[in-house]
Amino acid sequence: MENVENKVKKPFYKCWWFYVIIVIVTLMIVAGLRQVVESNSNNSDELPADTNELLSGTDKPQNEYYINDKVIVGNLEYVINQVVDTEFFIIGDDIVKTDNNFIKITFTIKNTSINSEFIMASKLKLRRGEAQYKVQYASSDLVWYELAPGLSKKFFVIFEVPDKSTEYDYLFSIENGEDTKEIILRECEAKTV
Questions:
Q1: Could you read off the pLDDT of 84-143 as tens digits, one per residue?
Q2: Which of 1, 26, 72, 77 is surrounded by the fewest CB atoms within 10 Å?
Q3: Which has more pLDDT, 52 or 183?
């Protein structure tokens, strides 16, 4: 009898059932996290493609394109990466400044066809209201560039425009053969320098 009363109780962390509980709780946490990740990836298709949709509170029509949207023109996929509204810009060692403003658009082009595609700065235009502007400056290789199949390349173009106006959105017009698309460049998206 004395033996039973003097028996020291094992600490709970040395009992087999404690480790069974740890394994079950760990499995439940992992399963819950996996379910959250899967539900988030399934819902990502339902989220707005860009911030313009969030700002306007309305669904974007199918034929409207904005900064960061993928826009297919012919066999080329365009994505506007950045728009800067500035009073000057730097080319090499030169600072270019006039009485007007400049809109610098940086974009990526991907060739989605199985053939090389030619890209020319002359096929890019900027519109605001009824006014249309041609490229004043561009990446040096954008004058006439051959983009091989499956490749992507980043370019920039600069348009000289009258003083900044919030009256109209800018429309960046891309032409490729008979296919032309316009990307809406909202004032609120453009960085002002």
A1: 888 877 777 777 787 788 888 888 999 999 998 888 888 888 888 888 888 888 887 777
A2: 1
A3: 183
Nearest CA among 57, 116, 45, 105 for reference residue 81: 105
DSSP string, 120-154: -GGGEEEEETTEEEE-SEE-GGGSSEEEPTT-EEE
Residues 126, 172: Cα–Cα separation, whole Å: 5
pTM: 0.63
> How long a stretch of residues is the chain?
193
Residue 3 in 3-state DSSP? helix
For residue 74, what are its two tokens?
């012919």
Q: Phi and psi of 32, rounded to 5°?
A: -65, -45
User: CB under 8 Å to 175, separation ≥6 — which residues?
Assistant: 73, 123, 124, 125
Q: What angle do CA 12, 18, 19 make, to 5 degrees?
A: 130
